Amino acid sequence: MSDDPRRYHPHRAATADRPLQGMTVLVVEDSRFASEAIRLLCQRSGARIRRADTLAAAHRHLAVYRPNIVIADIGLPDGTGAELLAELAAAAPRLDVLIGMSGDPALEATALAAGADGFLAKPVESLALFQQAILAHLPAGEGPRGPRALPNETVRPDRLALEDDLVHAAEIIGDDRRPLAYVAQFLGAVARSAHDTALEAAARRLAEAGPASAERARIAGLVNDRLAGLRAG
User: How many angstroms separate the CA atoms of 9 and 85, rounded?
Assistant: First the structure.
């Protein structure tokens, strides 16, 4: 990872309504729907964003630039975000803020044990909660100065991002080479972000099913129904 701050830390002019102005966020997240929510939150906060959807892609990003903030999903297709958080927490110089993220709130302890400064539970929609999760851990002197009103705003990603995730879910559900635990985790996180309680419950059942279970085919049908509904309307 390059540690030349001149390349990545331009003049910052954080303001009360753009408290992350001038900062760069790397979000490591395999869900396009969740990534789009973070993009909207960063945009409203004044931050730039880059996205990696795997650990390998994150390492490629980090080899050429130094973000201020990393937000890493715990469940990724090629490993766990906890691995990346632990690696970055031990690096010198350390990045300003490391945040773990998951659709499973129980994984907060895993993220913090790996060295994360904080944790975001999906769905991440509240601008105030997003900003506070980062601002609370910025080094002294960074971020806006003086009191500021917390924004009363939420974001809702474009439905095309949800459609992309459901297409991907349908593909991996039907792929026996994909570990069942990852398939269930991805589908459950997408369902939670979309506030689809029935699909989230189905993802939990999938996590408990054996690899040869017919549950895969049944849940694939549910996902295809959701896709048909999105495309119809």
Answer: 21
